[in-house]
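Record format v2
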Amino acid sequence: MKPALDRGSLALGAYVYTVLAFVIIPLVIIIPMSFGQNDHLEFPPSGFTLKWYAEYFTSRGWRNATWLSIQVAFLTAICATLIGTAATYAMVRGRGQLASLFQILLIGPIIVPHIALAVGLYLFFQTIGLSGTVPGFVLAHTVLALPFVVFTTAAALGKVDANFEAAAMSCGATRWTAFRLITLPLILPSVVSSAFFAFIISFDEPVVSFFLSGVRQKTLPRRMFEDIEQNLTPVIPAIATLLIVLSVAILLGAYAMRSRARS
Amino acid sequence: MNVNYPSDKVQAAGAAVRIRRLEKRFQSVIAVDGVDIDVSAGEFLALLGPSGSGKTTILMSVAGFEFPTSGSISVGTEDLTYVPANKRNLGMVFQNYTLFPHMSVLDNVAFPLKMRGVPKAERYARAEEALATVRLAGYGSRHPNQLSGGQQQRVALARAIVYRPRVLLMDEPLSALDKNLREEMQLEIKRLHAELGITVIFVTHDQSEALTMADRVAVLKDGRIQQIGPSRELYERPANLFTAGFIGEMNFINVTAEGSGGNISVLLPSGERWQLPASAAVEPLTGCQKAVLAVRPERLQLGDAHNGFTFRVKVDDVVYAGSASLLIGTLPDSTEIRARLPGASDLSALALGSTAVFTIPKEAILLYPGAAQ
Ligand SMILES: Nc1ncnc2c1ncn2[C@@H]1O[C@H](COP(=O)(O)OP(=O)(O)OP(=O)(O)O)[C@@H](O)[C@H]1O
Ligand SMILES: [Mg+2]
């Protein structure tokens, strides 16, 4: 029994470290590259400079793309969290027979290939004039972020006794007041953390943005793709590094919220 | 915050609850099937029945969390059948305490007053008062998870009575507590009921709880009322075979009964014939028919006591249990018979496998049409 167990745990360990390596190696490569002095990407980089960061922060094109992405991600976080939380509530607490159908529709965007969704949205948005607009991006990204919001809040809501609201109502609260004063505070950490997730999902979403971006309205990931095709200067690793820092900060924030929820 | 708050002067204790022809269906399931209950003002009524008999559904209909398929519910002079739960002004205690975990005990108890727009200072003063009523004065600043189960249930009780509702509804409020605590809380609830004069509807599937606490008990089965009456009546003269078997322990012997004039003659499996007074028949008997003779184990007397009928029982087991001993035996036709004998009885003659003679006092016999099992 024992040797078999050892071989098993050895294999598992190897597997885990391989996965970790694949995740971490790109980071180890990309961060130093962003400080390289040469105009083209090289590893290991030669010299040290912050000029690629400076270029990113001073170029109007990059600034516009970043600002658009921030706007879209912020609005997406709000929409996805509002809609997702309300939908989850209906799904978890509702008695309707449509609940399971509803669930499939909400989770759907995870299963549908993004490229299919992107083409569909592209054709549709073209005809109704939403392509390349902030509302267009927000709508599309909200669809993509919803499943994550639903997963996160459903787990939290499942742990809140449905009788809390009944008790509040028997105390004289309306259903809305009961939700606002009892259920919402109890699931709030998960709601906030799902808003963070929605922000990140929108902020570095490449596929749908690629199709929906117009000539002038480009999100940051879309702008980066263009730059990779045309120049491929170390400004790309510089932005990537900034994005990594931002993502880590946001995920740590979400994690802190969730561990607060658990205690 | 458009809930009426009864001022101190008009808060007359309890209100009468009238449930009329209540019916509730969930798709094809008939959870409640034509129930009529009149609870008088200040009365303590227990709803007792096996699992799935519709107790919770009835209570939830009164509370306003379920709306009946048909029938009506009124409290005092008000028809509440379709009034939303939050406008009913009824106190409610749930099985799992349902204290709001993110609020202090005091905020929990003050919550109903907050919903009624009572100013903060008064709210807290009255919440403190309610906590004192359930003997938890000084616990207000704690959080619910810092209290024991029994204390949490007291807080839930304080929250339910803080705005002095005229009716208090409880759905198995003590079933999550261990036995000692449960008995303590039973007394506590009885005391509160006496002190406040509030009408209580109490759901339980623990019959001793129902019998000891309630003024009257409604026995339910399959969504119908089997019997409703004071504990003593329920125990001493169950209205039908179901209640007879459900409440307490009961011996059942299948017989053939024949009513004639003031007497009933029953033919026992052993071939013996007993003449019973007409009062033994709980439901009227017609002609010659199958019937069940029922008698409580504690009414059987060891030996020939010359005040009733004697019969012979083969002794299968004797279980000593302190205040009383339980004898389990069989009649010749293998009907099981149980007898509870006072602890002081001389049981030395009762060897296993031997035959013992028992007396059934005439007045202890009940007769129901039908057959046991
Ligand atoms: N929401 C519902 N949907 C469908 N059926 C239900 C629903 N609520 C109750 N029932 C059914 O109605 C019947 C009565 O249920 P109810 O909960 O009132 O019983 P109960 O006497 O409270 O039982 P217990 O002692 O187990 O709590 C049961 O058959 C139950 O399955
Ligand atoms: Mg129940």
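Residues B 26, 29, 31, 49, 51-57, 205 surround adenosine-5'-triphosphate (ligand 1) (CB under 6 Å).
The longest strand of chain B covers residues 308-321.
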